[in-house]
What does this fold into?
Amino acid sequence: MKKRLLGLVLALVLFGSVPVYADVTFTDVQESDYFYISVLVASDKGIINGVGNNQFNPYGILTVAEAIKLSACIHANYYDVDITPDADSVHWADGYYNYAVENGIIKESDFAKADFDKAITRDRLFYIFANTLPDSEYIEINDIEVAPEKPSTDYLTKLFCAGIVVGNEQGFESEKNITRADSVEMVLRMTAHSRRRLVFEEGQTPPVYTPAVENEINRDIIAQEMLTLVNDTRAKNNMQSLTIHSDLMRVANILATEYSQGSYPHYLLDGRKDFYIAKDLGISIFFETNYGKTALRQSSEFHSNVMASEGRDSNANRALFSEDKYYGVASIKGADGNYYWVECFGMD
It folds into this structure.
């Protein structure tokens, strides 16, 4: 059975801007390395460090202590808490170990402190990472039937279905050790839904994934507020008014929900671009989107930011000059407290 692997795109975009990472420089990590972005992001979030002397040691083997630290930092980053170092620690990882135990990531019986500096197997890392985040963060995007081999544990099944571990032609290689570079790739998939990996059979259409909508703000109020703002802007440019279209409202709602969960607005978590949504939902309208996030809910703030954005000469100009007829919009409050917006402009 031939399988295809689709990598989802990481693009943390705000009104067309690009991500800005901390000034982290490792002399042994180059822009051409497959793990370059992963190292930048994980370092910026304080999840992983170098080994000293500006070295990351990407091809070094991950140790038990390092694995526990990764999981503890991913957990702390998710819940926005600090890990307090243990002043009386014997090993540098003692504080991370205690945090992991206290938060139910591992049990004391899982790992002996005497083994901190030994290499960890991929299986043991799978076990730790499957316990690191709440179940809601392990959204299933892969069918277990397309796994390279039958997972031997429930926690490996969990990671495969979530697109965090996908294996290769040799299977999952659970008993092998793992490099720091490969582990930081897993870290990025743990922390960014848009980097998770979709696996499907050759010739198969990627499965349709529509997330449950949570934290939805009153759709009708938002739509009318935004429609008024957009049409006022269009009227100043002698363009016809837009009307709300229920299908574009559905599309905007799906994209806004995905955006709030970490996906680039033009891609769903399963890797499909936004125009696939129209096909999946049986929509004949051609459409494009604007998107962005704000700390406040106000429609006027989002609209003014779009109009003032550097990228306005492309997508945002659809609100000003396009021949579109239809409009859809949604705003979802994310777990980070920000409001994620998506506008859809369409025509027949």
The two ends are 40 Å apart (CA to CA).
